[in-house]
């Protein structure tokens, strides 16, 4: 049976792509989801997986051809000479543990569209360790997300091919596992280094959470100093954070300072390679500054009404919806309200066109141990306060745990960044391209204000709107910020759509 291979969805406002590379040729056997070719657009690189297992028939679009969305790329003869899904490796001469069992390759999992390489961040196992099927072996870092690699079979880890810090492509082999009978033969090797095993399990026969192992390795925290609260004393990420934040014992008086020298300074420095995520953050922020005509306008909002409304209904809200009523839902609603009046703030530039969005996919910037990420709440303009709060809580938790998928961080039309949670009083947020607007929230602080000729103390917050002056004029930006201010100082406006 013949199956068509077509151009996948390329993303918002992208209508065509160029065929860059074919990884397979006619007659080659392919497995389902194996990468067939790579397309290049003006924004991203898109890999095209095989929709079924079989044999590649005719290639319709050759390398260098320009194709539109849903165009026919090739045909696939389903089931004929299909490539086996699991990839097996021949037993290695220097791995006797595999002689009576079967060797299984641990491959880089699917990294997602436009992601072609990753960095091996942390190995949770070492050579000789026994592993269970689906047990986490290592963690990879891409420029967008962290990916945990599970064991494809139960057995013994006999060889680590890609060491920590190595950069691997999407089809690379990471390690080899001896499964079946070979697992039992290799088991004694795992017992040869109990001290090393204790470093990742806290001295107990319990596997700690992978995120906890990674954090301990990054911060130099001794597992023996962490009290695990998970099942059977398993160390969780929260346990490591609690240990790190615990007040340290008062150090002894420091020695008298000495005159610095270049040699002594160098010995006290530490050089750490930037993660893929941090590199991408740096690149995108600089691209934003270089591309957009970015300008920031400021205002301040009296939070009295919002705080009063929240205090009045927070218990009922929690009881009915099962989630706390926070400030972010009020700000999200206020921004949606303002975006309807000033649609250019919700638009983007595509070449010489301005693309207006008749929907609001709200990005909520979140700080994580790995760096800043922006999960997107889709169709926020049609959501209730409770739906928004639930979405923010769920996305925030996934962001902190490094579990967000790329799809959850794409397609935003406007962003809210809350520096106030860290104590920021005033800042100028940087645009998240290709968006044309970002609202910066800040710390709520009591300040004396003149109200009806009287000086009164009010909880005030500075607001900052950074916008792309290429399509948003000063009038539109100021109007947007004033509408947000009005909606927050009188939340009834949101109900009346005023």
From TrEMBL:
Assigned keywords, A-Z: Acyltransferase, Lipoyl, Transferase, Tricarboxylic acid cycle
PANTHER family assigned: DIHYDROLIPOYLLYSINE-RESIDUE SUCCINYLTRANSFERASE COMPONENT OF 2-OXOGLUTARATE DEHYDROGENASE COMPLEX, MITOCHONDRIAL (PTHR43416:SF5), DIHYDROLIPOYLLYSINE-RESIDUE SUCCINYLTRANSFERASE COMPONENT OF 2-OXOGLUTARATE DEHYDROGENASE COMPLEX, MITOCHONDRIAL-RELATED (PTHR43416)
Keyword Ribonucleoprotein annotated: no
Organism phylogeny: Bacteria, Pseudomonadati, Pseudomonadota, Alphaproteobacteria, Rhodobacterales
EC number: 2.3.1.61
Pathway: Amino-acid degradation; L-lysine degradation via saccharopine pathway; glutaryl-CoA from L-lysine: step 6/6
Protein name according to UniProt: Dihydrolipoyllysine-residue succinyltransferase component of 2-oxoglutarate dehydrogenase complex
Matching InterPro entries: 2-oxoacid_dehydrogenase, 2-oxoacid_DH_actylTfrase, Biotin_lipoyl, CAT-like_dom_sf, E3-bd_dom_sf, PSBD, Single_hybrid_motif, SucB
Family per record: Belongs to the 2-oxoacid dehydrogenase family.
Pfam families: 2-oxoacid_dh, Biotin_lipoyl, E3_binding
Lipoyl-binding domain ranges (all copies): 2-77, 103-178
Cofactor(s) needed for function: (R)-lipoate
Biased segments, Low complexity type: 247-264
Highest taxon above the source species: Bacteria
Annotated Peripheral subunit-binding (PSBD) domain residues: 207-244
Broad enzyme group: transferase
Gene expressing this chain: odhB
């Amino acid at each position: 049976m013949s199956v068509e291979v077509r151009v996948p969805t390329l993303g918002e406002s992208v209508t065509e792509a160029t065929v860059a590379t074919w990884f397979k040729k006619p007659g080659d056997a392919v497995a389902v989801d194996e990468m067939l070719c790579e397309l290049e657009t003006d924004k991203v690189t898109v890999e095209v997986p095989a929709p079924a297992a079989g044999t590649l028939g005719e290639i319709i679009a050759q390398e260098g051809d320009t194709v539109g969305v849903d165009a026919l790329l090739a045909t696939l003869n389903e089931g004929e000479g299909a490539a086996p899904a699991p990839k097996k490796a021949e037993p290695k001469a220097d791995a006797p543990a595999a002689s009576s069992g079967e060797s299984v390759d641990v491959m880089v999992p699917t990294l997602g569209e436009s992601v072609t390489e990753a960095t091996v961040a942390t190995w949770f196992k070492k050579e000789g360790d026994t592993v269970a099927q689906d047990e986490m072996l290592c963690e990879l870092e891409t420029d967008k997300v962290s990916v945990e690699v599970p064991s494809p079979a139960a057995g013994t880890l006999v060889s680590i091919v890609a060491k920590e810090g190595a950069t691997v492509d999407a089809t690379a082999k990471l390690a080899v596992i001896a499964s079946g009978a070979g697992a039992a033969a290799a088991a004694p090797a795992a017992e040869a280094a109990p001290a090393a095993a204790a470093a990742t399990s806290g001295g107990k026969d319990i596997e700690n959470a992978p995120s906890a192992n990674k954090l301990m390795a990054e911060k130099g925290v001794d597992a023996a100093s962490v009290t695990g609260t998970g099942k059977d004393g398993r160390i969780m990420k929260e346990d490591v954070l609690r240990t790190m934040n615990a007040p340290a014992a008062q150090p002894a008086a420091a020695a008298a300072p000495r005159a610095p020298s270049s040699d002594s300074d160098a010995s006290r420095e530490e050089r750490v390679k930037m993660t893929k995520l941090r590199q991408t953050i740096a690149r995108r922020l600089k691209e934003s500054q270089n591309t957009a005509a970015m300008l920031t306008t400021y205002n301040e909002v009296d939070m009295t009404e919002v705080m009063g409304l929240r205090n009045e209904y927070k218990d009922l809200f929690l009881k009915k919806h099962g989630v706390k009523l926070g400030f972010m839902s009020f700000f999200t609603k206020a921004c949606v309200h303002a975006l309807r009046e000033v649609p250019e703030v919700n638009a983007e530039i595509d070449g010489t066109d301005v693309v207006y969005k008749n929907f609001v996919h709200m990005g909520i910037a979140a700080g994580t141990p790995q760096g800043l990420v922006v999960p997107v709440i889709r169709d926020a303009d049609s959501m209730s306060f409770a739906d928004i709060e639930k979405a923010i809580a769920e996305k925030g938790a996934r962001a902190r745990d490094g579990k967000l998928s790329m799809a959850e961080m794409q397609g935003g039309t406007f962003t809210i960044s809350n520096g106030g949670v860290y104590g920021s009083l005033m800042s100028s947020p940087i645009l998240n391209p290709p968006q044309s607007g970002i609202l910066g929230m800040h710390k709520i602080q009591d300040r004396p204000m003149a109200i009806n000729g009287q000086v009164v103390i009010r909880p005030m917050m500075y607001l900052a709107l950074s916008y792309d002056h290429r399509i948003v004029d000063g009038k539109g930006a100021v109007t947007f910020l004033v509408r947000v201010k009005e909606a927050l100082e009188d939340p009834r406006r949101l109900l009346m759509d005023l």
